Amino acid sequence: MDENSDSRLQHEVDALKRKLEEDRSKMTDGEITFMSQHFEAVPALNVKVRRILKGHQGKVLGLAWSLDKRHVVSSSQDGKLLVWDAFSSTKEFCISMPTTWVMACSFSPSNAVVACGGLDNKCTVYPLTPEEDPVVRKKLVATHSSYLSCCLFNMSDHQLLTGSGDSSCILWDVESGQMIQSFHGHAGDVMCIDNSPSECGRVFVSGVSFFNSSWLYNI
């Protein structure tokens, strides 16, 4: 390759770099201090305690509302998973886990199933039927190589999304327990995940400890 070809290629590379920088600068968000000047101050909220749900013997590590807006599931350091009627403050289900530090829990969209996991590196689903002990019909869906930090159903009872200390997020098929898709790129423990309600389960965001970063993924 002669000098003219090298020079031409270098010129093209420099032009592409400038174009990328220009496109990136157009998408750059403003600083919070600057952007907040254009909004009115939010008035103080008058927050009142409506219910206190007591029952765990250790730190509460996970909470999730059901879509019926009445039930809450909580997981704790005591190795218990509790399903509450938030209106009456009563416990409807108490499930003992095979491990302490149950860090994640989630309701399915139908409210018929809960998922949970923690230091056992697994995510297990439990059907909620008054006629039968949930432990009898439990189903192991997901297994990671490190602790399970978060889980949520992906817009249906049939897909489950999990995040882990192994720096990965994985989408699972609940029925078969097979991995559908894995998401990598984090340099630290994945601590939280949430999906976009406007994207019908096609987009989710994850957060990482220690690195002050969030990642947005397409499914």
TrEMBL record:
In residue terms, where are the WD repeats? 53-85, 141-182
Kindly state which keywords UniProt assigns to this record, in alphabetical order: Repeat, Transducer, WD repeat
GO biological process terms held by the UniProt record: signal transduction
Question: Pfam families per the record?
Answer: WD40_Gbeta
SMART domains, alphabetically? WD40
Q: Indicate yes or no for the key word Manganese.
A: no
Keyword Chaperone carried by entry: no
Q: Which domain of life is it from?
A: Eukaryota
Q: Which family does it belong to?
A: Belongs to the WD repeat G protein beta family.
Instruction: Give the protein name, as stated in the record.
Output: Uncharacterized protein
Native species of this protein?
Dibothriocephalus latus
